[in-house]
Each structure stands twice: as structure tokens, then as C-alpha cells.
Amino acid sequence: MAYHSGHPGEIAVQRRNGVTRDGWGSAGTSAAIPEVAAGFLRRQRLIAVGTAADDGTVWADAVTGPAGFVTTGPGDRRIVIDALPRLVSVHYEDEHDIGLIAIEPPTRRRMRANGVARRDGDRLVVRTEQVYSNCPKYIQTRHIVEDVPPRVPGEPVTGRSLTAAQREAVARADTFFIATHAPGHGTDVSHRGGNPGFVQVTGTDRLTWPEYVGNGMYMTLGNLELNPAAGLLFIDWERGDTLHLTGRARVDFDPGRAASVPGARQMVDFEIDRVVSIPGALALHWRFGEYHRFNPPVAELTP
Predict the structure, then answer these.
(1) Distance CA 34, CA 37 (A)
(2) Residue range 139-177, pLDDT digits in tens
(3) Cβ distance 279 to 151 under 8 Å?
């Protein structure tokens, strides 16, 4: 897998945005897990996962557990997750591309790891190819509510478009995760955050959101440059419900369109192909803290 030979999608997006530094993005990551990253992983309670299915669709999912349910080693390129993402674990019977993001809402810290994974009983074993941290921008603080018993997960409910309740949930979301995949360059999952309303529902099967100023790596947009397939995950933090969307994302680089949206560098339009909702999918519940101070104000988006 050509993780470090240069990602043409990332390079193209970087150049459009004035980033001329070589070796930035996935080319500048390391496959090894530093000890500080290993320690961070061992404390985490939430891991988001991205994968590409055999039919070409891309999905984002998540798992939760007690501190210590994610471990590293032996060796410096191995992550073991003592849980299986309910929606996508079927794809890991054999070694398969994976993207991970460990996010700690109380501290706004996050790290990402991409590589390949296989299922080992009731756990995932990941061999890393890219390990790196991200800045805390646009992460809202949340705190785990320990005394709320987990709900019994319900059966997945599927559809081809958003229901009225799902449209309302997306419209008030302040966070989602996006998974992307570029053949030969692996799978990635990333975080997007903003004030409620930063994701606009433009139809029963269409969403639009702004790409805010970030770290200039453009790993998500780089994958989309080569392959528009993407998966989105919205979490109901208070109840543990999950909403999974798979479809195609188109990045609009027209500066005129983005200029009307505070903080936006580009706009992304997403067409939904399939919807899966899982009541009570996550065992943990969070209490909201505060919005990130760098969240731009929300403006009405232009479709």
C-alpha cells in the first residue's frame, strides 16, 4: 500500500490552497506509535472508525469502552481494540484498510491512526501505517456521565433518505465524523465540528457544510479528490444513538461561494445513498460542556 509515496489528491488540494511545503499531509506521518500516543490511547473511551466496503461504499462507525479497552504493542505498530464496531466489523474477517481517530472531548485532544486491521474474535487488531495528532480546533467539550446505565442496543434501521427526525438531528449537530478512502492510499476518518447549524440539510438526501481553516494536511479532501465516496457518523451524545450515512461528497473550491460563510475555505456537498440508524449503539453518555472558541458563527449556506 503506497502510504508514503506521495498522495496526489492531497498535493492537488494543498496547491489549490497555497500550501507549497513538501512532505506535508500523509507523507509526513510515521508508522510507529510514540509512547506518548500509546499512553493517550490507553486512556481513551471513544474511537471512531472508517472503512470501505467491498461494494465501494465508505462508512464511519464508533466504539466505546472503559479506559484500557484500547492497547498497543507488542511492537511499535500495533493497536488492539477490545470491541467491534457493530456496523463495519464484517469487513475485517481478513486484513482490510482502516482509519481511526481517538478523541477525548473533555480535553479536546485527538490523534489519528490509519493502517490495516483484522478481526480477532471480539476485538480488532490494527497494524499502523500513519500515526499523527491534530490540533483541538472545533472540538466541543463533553464529559462522560458515569451513573447512566447503557441502553440495550436496538436493531439497525435502514433507509435511502433522511426522515424528518433525522434531518432535525443533523441540523442541530455540532460534531460529526467523516470517513474517506482512496484506493492505494488507505482509509481515513476525521472530525468536523462547529456551532449547531454548521451542517445544513438541503434535502432529504443532501447535506452541505463548510470546510473551516485547519492544519493544511487535507487528508480528507485529498482522498475525496481521488474518490468521492464518503461515510458520515452523527452521534447523539446524550442517548448513545448513532446515525450513519454513506454517499458521495463533492468539494466546491469556488472562493465566491465560500466567502459568504465565516471561516470557510471550501464548501462540501454530500449526496446520501444509504442511511443506517442504531438506537443505543454506544454504551457511554456525555454531558455537553462548551463550544470551541474558534467555532465561526453560522451563516445560511448557499447550496
Answers:
(1) 5
(2) 999 999 988 888 899 999 999 999 999 999 999 999 999
(3) yes
